[in-house]
Design a protein that fits this description.
HTH_TetR; Arc Repressor Mutant, subunit A; TetR/AcrR family transcriptional regulator; mainly alpha; DNA binding; 198 residues; Tetracycline Repressor, domain 2; HTH-type_Tx_Regulator
Length: 198
């Protein structure tokens, strides 16, 4: 196993994430090989495994970082719209996030097929950690007066499923795409969010 200084580790991890994001965005997770990733990052294949056990782990690390960036951008949106009723705040927040995906093409291109691949290839604890990260963000929404009528983990999984559905709907160029998205979103939010403020 190669030995790297802390500075080298940081540089290699950054390069893996940068090149991984570029490749996953261009070709999708299933079509990108570890050989292509290490060639683009300029490291040996054995070195890759010092950082990640698989390309799916790298993908989840990149996706998690991109989501964190998007959530930090969302903080400003929430502050500006905190006077909205809780359900409407969540509705607008979800629509804002879906629009924000344009700045994160790797996240935007993820769909049901990508999710299915990750669920099949990654250990359960990696998927659960991702759900926990989403749950933490939903807990933050409670600071804005949002009350969930179900458990936070259930709400997180429901909204993850909704997000994948929305990403799948992108493939539909029909004129009613936005209407379908709003109907589904409104129905889900009515079920999981109380419209009562603090």
């Amino acid at each position: 196993m190669p030995r790297f200084s802390d500075t080298e580790k940081k540089m290699i991890r950054q390069k893996l994430m940068q090149e991984g994001e570029r490749l996953f965005t261009s070709f999708g997770i299933k079509k990108v090989s570890i050989d292509e990733i290490v060639r683009a990052a300029g490291i040996a294949k054995g070195s890759f495994y010092s950082f990640y056990p698989s390309k799916e782990h790298l993908y989840m690390d990149i996706a998690g970082n991109l989501q964190t960036k998007m959530w930090r951008e969302m903080d400003e949106f929430l502050d500006e719209n905190r006077s909205l009723p809780p359900r409407e705040l969540c509705r607008q927040c979800f629509l804002w996030m879906f629009q924000a995906l344009k700045r994160y093409p790797m996240l935007k291109q993820a769909d049901g097929e990508t999710a299915e691949h990750l669920y099949r290839k990654l250990p359960r604890e990696v998927i659960e950690a991702h759900t926990k990260d989403d749950s933490c963000e939903l807990i933050r929404l409670q600071e804005y007066g949002v009350h969930f009528t179900c458990g936070i983990e259930t709400a997180a999984k429901t909204l993850q499923t909704l997000a994948v559905s929305f990403l799948n709907l992108q493939q539909d160029d029909s004129s009613d795409q936005q209407a379908v998205m709003r109907i589904i979103l409104d129905g889900v939010l009515k079920e999981i969010i109380s419209d009562e403020s603090d």
